[in-house]
Amino acid sequence: MRSLFAKRINDIPKSFIREILKVIDNPEIISFAGGLPNPEFFPVEEIKEASNKVLAEDGTNVLQYSTTEGYLPLREYIADRYFKKQGLKISPEQILITNGSQQGLDLIGKTFLNEGDGLIIEEPGYLGAIQSFSFYRPKFNSVPLLEDGVDLEVLKDTLAENDCKLFYGVPNFQNPSGITYSDNKRRAVAKLLEESNTIFVEDDPYGELRFIGEDIPLIKNYLKDNTILLGSFSKIVAPAFRLGWVVMSMDKMEKAIVAKQASDLHSNYFAQRVIYQYLIDNDIDQHISRIKEVYGRQREMMVNSIKEYFPPEISFTEPEGGMFLWITLPKELSSLELFDMAIKEKVAFVPGSPFYVNGQGKNTLRLNYSNVAEEKIEEGIKSLAKVIKRAIN
Ligand code: PMP
Predict the structure, then answer these.
(1) How far is the CA of 392 from the centre of ligand 1 (A)?
(2) Which residues form a coiled coil (predicted)?
(3) Is 226 a pocket residue for ligand 1 (Cβ < 6 Å)?
(4) Would you give the DSSP letter of residue 287?
(5) 281, 309, 324: which is the final residue of a domain?
(6) ipTM (interface predicted TM)
(7) Of 2, 29, 58, 292, which shows the fewest CB atoms inside 10 Å?
(8) Strand ranges (DSSP E) for 184-279?
(9) Does one domain contain both 252 and 123?
């Protein structure tokens, strides 16, 4: 019998999180499940002004087809920001504008992965990357995360025992764990990857959202040519623009442009023009400071409530930025079973096992604090604590 669907689509499950979000579409539920930025910070008025301005000043052009690489002044702006923030010298020609960093992940898969190619991913890893790369049928090798980043011993062994083309990681305030790599670990990872000629795919949508401690240089600083760096406007301006970017060396860029052309010709040019106008007419640093201040408070409220209400056998991460915190329950508990109990208590989270490519993580879960009002956080954590205590006893 001929199968209607391609094998590649039949093999890949729906995003577990998107399915969960449907279940908890009930305003009475306090949801720590989503991965959404706080909409309070969407610059609605400023975007309205920027849209009006580009339409008034250059209306026919901003509605026309454009180049695959993306709007040059926007790429120059991004390059300039990397120099100011990180001292990183990147030419605008090395930046490709994409439909969110999520498209960047797909283009990387399309450009670099043959079926069976070795790919390293953090454990737990970003679900959207697991889904995106799965279409290219790589051989996943997962390396556990420790408190200060990936486990170097396991990484070393994995690189020695497998031919790994890419290592995908999120060194700043990782999704789902909230973990950040220390500077020493970044240097060590860069050295190991250099020696094994493995490309680091450095996904950094949260890097600007640090509310505790000092910024740490990107791994791109330590592994210049062999890093592909992804960035996004989703968490610092608004996700609906679907605008992100990929930074890579010119030889890689030439191929990625072909992949992007075949996918969509170019990203929404009007959106690129509006966001650029918004960026040059407003103080984005001030805007980001406000986001960080509130996320910092929400995170503090969550951490303090966990300390107060959760039983001592529960461990959790204490993120220095970003939007997520990771909970590890005693081994014998299942976060999937806990999820059903939690919904009855009107609180939701994301069970951790979908973030593992090896079927583990059954006793883990992810909590989001950025999209829950401060006063609701304590109430939600209290309910969750009740459910956990009941499950333990
Ligand atoms: N990478 C990571 C680690 C993420 O958490 C997200 C958003 N959930 C993305 C990429 C995709 O972001 P966007 O496509 O909106 O830029």
Answers:
(1) 34
(2) none
(3) no
(4) H
(5) 281
(6) 0.99
(7) 2
(8) 199-203, 227-232, 244-247
(9) yes
